[in-house]
Amino acid sequence: MHQNKVSSSGVQIWLNFVVGTLSSVITCIVFLPVFHKMKCTCLHEYFIHRYNSTLIRQLFSVIFLSFTIIYMSIVIYAPSVALSPVLRIHKWWLVLIFGLCTTLYTCIGGLKAVVWSDSLQVLSVFAVNLFREAILMYSGVLTLIVQGLRHPRVGGFGRVWSIAVESGRTSELFRFDPRIDQYNSVWINLVSGTITWLASFGVNQLAIQRYASLPTLQQAQRIIYWTLIPFTILCSIVAFVGFIALAYFYNCNPIETGEITETDHLTILFARDILREFS
What we know:
Pfam families: SSF. With 279 residues, the chain is mainly α.
């Protein structure tokens, strides 16, 4: 979904994802050794050994449940909104379908299935002969980029970049102003992104359970390091799709023309138009 954000607002969300690599390194160096040394399988154990306080443990449980409910709601709702106009299925039916599928997958496969799916989704780009879903995912994005750049309305890489610069979508990429009373800058993304991703990679209950499922500290660190470069590459090429979509719809906003009603549908509409001509 962040390609829609790049197309509508700019490159700041891409910077936020790239900063996630720094948080991953901090997690490997600072957090993982502590959790593995204590043999913690969840944060509850850490709070018990560190503070020995029932109140803190209960407070953490409430915060974690609230965060997880909100997070899972967004994660399921976002693709439902994006795919609804393409599949011609109401978004609430898609929310129900996605929720049931992920719940059944986790119940049947357990924690090991969750770890494998998270790792293979990114790492399988290096083993396409073994994992067919990787071929579909990455070749689909690359096909969209190639066909988009070749389209007359886009005009190639040079025009894509010039439109991105002209429309101000790349301004945050070179904004090093340290003031905090602005919408975005490199420093804001560096600080806020590091804190946000540390909350996801370092002290997140779900992440710690995944790390604990691996037998050694080195394996847990290795799996994080292995995902850094593919993660950055994937975020970059998906963000570039947002720039291509911006060039495709430049001076012809599909929301203003009534083709779509939400910016979340922008990339889906772009992919449908490009691939329809390709087929």
